[in-house]
Specification:
The strands form two sheets. The protein has a two-stranded antiparallel ribbon with strand order 1-2. The protein has a two-stranded parallel ribbon with strand order 3-4. It is built from eight helices and four strands. The chain is mainly alpha-helical and 267 residues long. The longest helix is centred in the N-terminal third of the chain and has 25 residues. Helix content is 50%, strand content 5%. A hairpin with a 2-residue loop joins strand 1 and strand 2. The chain starts with 13 loop residues before the first strand and ends in a 5-residue tail after the last strand. Helix 1 packs across helix 4 and helix 3 runs antiparallel to helix 4. The chain has one domain.
Length: 267
Amino acid sequence: MQREEFADFNSSSTLLTTGKKIMTLQSGSRWNAASASRRKMLKWGLYGLGAAALTAVPEAVFAQRAVKTLTFNADDVGILNFALLLEELESAFYNAVTRSGKITNPQELEYVRALGIHEATHVTFLRQVLGKNATFQSRDLSFNPAGLAALLKDRDTILRTAVALEDTGVHAYNGAGPSLTNPTFILAAGSIVSVEARHAAGVRGILRRPATQVDITDSPITDDQLVPELNPFKGRAYDELYTPKQIVGIVGSLNLIRNPIKGALVS
């Protein structure tokens, strides 16, 4: 799968190449596969997470189900389930964004929709790879409506949150990658992480922020908190690798879900 995501939104269009189909995102336009994409959103978002309707669901609905503790073991299955959690959160966030009405620029909205479809595809893909080894279902995730509402406050907050989520995904995949031993799982993670990085660069472009010189405010983990064994190379030319425990701290700061996250992988 190849994608070309141009950060210059002053240009007339943004191209998204998927297989043999080329979709042009122009102001007021729709993808050639728009109806199929919306069906995918319904299948993966509404029926899975209920993410597209999160902003309209009364808080009482969120409280009806007991909150499940998410447990991740320190092995290949635990790592890939942890990656699945991050993809679920991204998918839910983007679907909620498209329903929020806070992104009013047509090109920006189409771009966010594209990101949401990518993340929903990642969720489906990882669940297929894990099969019966998936340790939680989409319906097990208990979203915090107040936390979600805060992230959907306005356009800039939404886009900054998107950068944070995408960056977190990259840091997480790279940080856990050296511990993976299953070749199939390594391929699965490797096929996603570069897409997450392109997402982050694309959203930075919308915000008119440079993609090659990440601002210090984008780094929730300071240099002295980095694990030396995971980060032998430092500098702007290298990305930081975070431990699962550090990733859990970042996810917790977003206040997006209520589920406790435990297990040897994150301890």
